[in-house]
């Protein structure tokens, strides 16, 4: 089935402008969404999803109350939820492999749901802006097209993407919404900010920096964050970046240099230092096993031994 909007199949479109012209209620929903107050999500109960990661769970999960992700500029944040079971998935997509990633997200939700029972699959999209290279636009169209290919009926509810997530500040285009969260119990999706981006933030960033593919980071049946094992070359020629000025790092390591959050350069340097300190990725995964993290009684994520 095609992607459904107000119970009708999405017509063939060639641009997001055409999408919003044909479905003006999506414009109105996007305006409402982007004007919602920003929620600073409490780390306790948060499951944070980094770039090129996804995580899925159900309302029965006692370890996670909110799944969230931030720091998206040209990237898109995707929430898929089954209204019957409440199973929900959040992904942070950067366009690296959209056509193979979207089926993974659908499978993550349907595997936690009995979709033959009452309820439907609802899709919420946020991210991107009017960037000069049109990277956001390309990703918007590819995500919509990939969901069009899914056999299950999927209802597009929120579409705060590209031009509907764009604001001009001091003559520069940038996103309005950089991050979102989804309440696991209620399914509410809201603009969010995050002070905590773990566990193992540096390791997960290193995996993405070195070309890791979209990864499922959470085992909801056991309440465990799972990372790796992942590999990178011990001979990465990246040390020179640490001597570069901020503008150079922004220019070459970002898809949207003028729109990045203030901590982007420091985040890049921290990731590069981590890779230089751990040239042999095997040492991080003894016996070739993933790293696991569980929620403690105090609400923090802790390495499971």
From TrEMBL:
Pfam families: N_Asn_amidohyd. One of its GO terms (molecular function) is protein-N-terminal asparagine amidohydrolase activity. GO terms for biological process: ubiquitin-dependent protein catabolic process. GO terms for cellular component: nucleus. This is N-terminal asparagine amidase. It comes from Gasterosteus aculeatus aculeatus (three-spined stickleback). The lineage of its organism: Eukaryota, Metazoa, Chordata, Craniata, Vertebrata.
